[in-house]
Design brief:
Strand order of the largest sheet: 6-7-8-3-9-10
CATH topology of the largest domain: Rossmann fold
GO molecular function: ATP binding; ATP hydrolysis activity
EC number: 3.6.3.-
Keywords: ATP-binding, Hydrolase, Nucleotide-binding, Transport
Structural class: alpha/beta
Strand content: 15-25%
Helix content: 25-40%
Number of helices: 9
InterPro entries: AAA+_ATPase, ABC_transporter-like_ATP-bd, ABC_Transporter_VariousFunc, P-loop_NTPase
CATH superfamily of the largest domain: P-loop containing nucleotide triphosphate hydrolases
Number of strands: 10
Order of helices and strands: EEEHEEHEHHHEHEHEEHH
CATH architecture of the largest domain: 3-Layer(aba) Sandwich
Largest sheet: 6 strands, mixed
Shape: globular
Pfam families: ABC_tran
């Protein structure tokens, strides 16, 4: 469903994403990992049509996003890293507004709103202005809006930032279930433990390039001699030039975890 085909994005003389090739199929949840500035968020913005590639193309289903944005957008639900809501609307009003933007009928909007209210446990907050919401409630509402049209593809950028444990569990369970129901999920995250727990595959970006794509088991084979969690494997992979063939297996370690925000 998602295909990055030799995608490059430049800003002036700076290359933010270089020759990215990555596919995510139906029923898959892929976690996109990388340091600050690695190219994750730029890649996601090209996927959802907020940026255009300088070279190459991004496809969602049969559509090239830059050429068929309207058609592609109907297949995509997008949860950005910073939840945006209209503060003077209630969650109900906001969800109804989004449903109308997607062309749903009044009956379809009512059904969709009720479905998402139940899915994200929004009931008692539905008629309060969103300006009164906690970060977790805002994030739940943004998720509900992204799913109002039942998209085939869900794209989420740092979905766990600032959430309490209850919200994290709710989001984790939902993302895994959504993929298990045959949908396509691409999740950018710096929460490596969650990526290891729920992702089918991980894709690691470093310095604008994709340096690994596969399962955690395959990553362990790629980084011999490093035991433990995905965090340990990630640090080893991105701390040496494995992708340039400069590694001799002597992987250095950091004294602290890196900042992995987009």
């Amino acid at each position: 469903m998602i295909h990055f085909e030799d995608v490059t994005r430049t800003f002036g003389n700076r290359t933010a994403v270089e020759r990215l090739n990555l596919s995510v199929g139906k029923g898959e949840l892929v976690a996109l990992l990388g340091h600050n500035g690695a190219g994750k968020t730029t890649s996601i913005k090209m996927l959802v049509g907020l940026l255009q590639p300088s070279f190459g193309q991004v496809k969602v289903g049969p559509y090239v996003v830059s050429e068929s944005m309207r058609e592609a957008s109907r297949l995509i639900g997008y949860v950005p890293d910073q939840p945006f809501l209209y503060d003077k609307l209630s969650a109900r009003e906001f969800l109804e507004f989004v449903g109308e933007l997607y062309g749903l009928t009044a009956s379809e909007v009512r059904t969709a709103v009720q479905r998402e209210v139940e899915r994200f446990q929004l009931g008692e907050f539905m008629d309060r202005l969103t300006e009164s919401y906690s970060h977790g409630m805002r994030q739940r509402t943004v998720f509900a809006a992204a799913l109002i049209h039942e998209p085939e593809v869900l794209v989420v950028d740092e979905p766990m930032v600032g959430l309490d444990p209850q919200c994290i569990r709710l989001v984790k369970d939902f993302l895994r279930a959504y993929a298990d129901n045959g949908k396509t999920v691409l999740m950018s995250t710096h929460t490596l433990g969650i990526a290891e727990e729920i992702a089918d595959r991980v894709a690691v970006m470093n310095s604008s390039r994709l340096v690994f794509e596969g399962t955690v088991a395959q990553l362990r084979e790629r980084v011999p001699g490093v035991l433990g969690t995905l965090e340990s494997l990630y640090l080893a992979l991105t701390d040496v030039s494995v992708f340039d063939g400069n590694s001799n297996g002597d992987f250095r370690s950091h004294s602290e975890s890196p900042v992995l925000e987009p």
